[in-house]
Amino acid sequence: MKKMWLSAACAAGLLLLSGCSDTLSLPDPTSLIRPPRLPADKEVLKNVIDRQLPAGATAVRTRDSEDTQAVHYADLDGDGKREAVVFYKPVENGRNIHLMILQEQGDTWVNVLDIEGKGQQLDKLDFTDISGDGYTDIVVGYGADGEDGANGTNSTLMVYSYAGQALEILGTKLELPYSEFALVDMNKDNLQELVLVNLKPNIGTEIRVYQYQGTDFQELSSLILPNKTVTGYYNVTAGEVAKDQNGVVLDIMIGAGSYTQVVMMKNGILQSVLGEDAAFKDGFVKSEDVNGDGIIEISMLKTPYGWSDFKNKEDIPILTVYGQWDGSKGVTPVREQYRDANGRFTLPPFPQELLGNVTLNTVSMVDKYLQFVRIDDRKWLEEVRFFTPVQWQNESEEKGWIKLYSTSSQVIAYRVNPEGELAAGKTGAPAT
């Protein structure tokens, strides 16, 4: 028996007209609109879910912007057949959300379980074998309604194991509070640990690492990062933080700025490896693996070369630098790129051979024109221009411009120097 912690393109109708008629009566355009067609198996499941939901209830997604699915699939009981997991919110305000599990049986789906959760919102969701018994467990972060829930505080973690028509709660530590959590093999023993990050007002950040052992979760180590001015975490990611070293990377909000901290285990003891000033920044940029080597890079912001005398910070276009923890106390830059401060576009990282050798021409003006040049010979590499719609109509794709972002009043476009280093390796438009 498993032993674990807690229980359980909008398609529109098209009207083809040939010729005209004074007597032709057109239907209301809204009557022609049809919902998107789903693959047959998903359409069957959707119909079953719609019938099983209580009147007025709605399926819910997690708060994670990268998780856009309301239905998640996993083989929870190890029988080789997938289950569908759906969370839904009852129509009554203040009620906890529910967890529903449906099983694929023949050419249809059957609702085999429905339980009440431990919060009014679905904060985070993960499917993994955290107990190490070969079966997939459900790790659920429940959040509260209101401001505290939206800020990641007052959240509750539950770990469920589905064992043949029943849902068990793993372990005896019920309803663990957290601000953020991560799943990662911290001590390289080929088992995943549960890392809970908690914001302690007027104290700092508390981190605890748990591992499932026997019939319960045991705490392996804990750590306090003392900083009374921390207001939250805008990104927490876990994985390889240096070659052959796993850990957790926290992007921490502090006033109008932020800093990044790396936490890892050495000889079974949690340790933080960066000082607060090592990766402090006047803004918010996520740490992530930007060069595809499997190691999480630490985000930093840099004033471009030649701009240090500009007194008004709003006039300075800032470069984003990604570095890797060097295994001791420092951060080594590995990539640089430009990210629009207002989130409208992101340019591709500069090639490795240009690391530390790119700045912006000081004729550049934020929200008007940006020209990126080499530091050594001042040759231009790429440029971004902000057009009015009328100005954009007078431009042509033959001039090399690629649209990045547009509204009714503005078009932002980008092009590279066809004779520069970026032209040969160009793979397409930057991320938007």
Would you give an account of this structure?
With 432 residues, this protein is mainly β. The chain has helices at residues 40-52, 146-150, 389-393, 421-424; strands spanning 58-60, 71-74, 83-89, 98-105, 108-116, 121-128, 137-143, 155-162, 167-169, 176-178, 180-184, 193-200, 204-213, 216-226, 230-242, 245-254, 257-266, 269-272, 280-281, 298-302, 319-325, 331-338, 358-360, 369-374, 380-387, 402-406, 411-416. It contains four helices and 27 strands. Strands 1, 2, 3, 4 and 5 form a five-stranded antiparallel sheet that branches. Strands 6, 7, 8, 9 and 10 form a five-stranded antiparallel sheet that branches. Strands 15, 16, 17, 18 and 19 form a five-stranded antiparallel sheet that branches. Strand 17 (257-266) and strand 18 form a beta hairpin. The longest helix has 13 residues, at 40-52.
Residue runs with pLDDT of under 50 for 5 or more positions = 1-38
Main pleated sheet: 5 strands, antiparallel
User: What proportion strand?
Assistant: 35-45%
- Average pLDDT number: 85
Per DSSP E runs of 2 or more residues, the count of β-strands stands at: 27
Q: Helical element count?
A: 4
Helix percent reads: under 10%
* C-alpha geometry: globular
Distance between the termini: 49 Å
Nearest-angstrom radius of gyration?
26 Å
Structural class of the helix and strand makeup? Answer: mainly beta
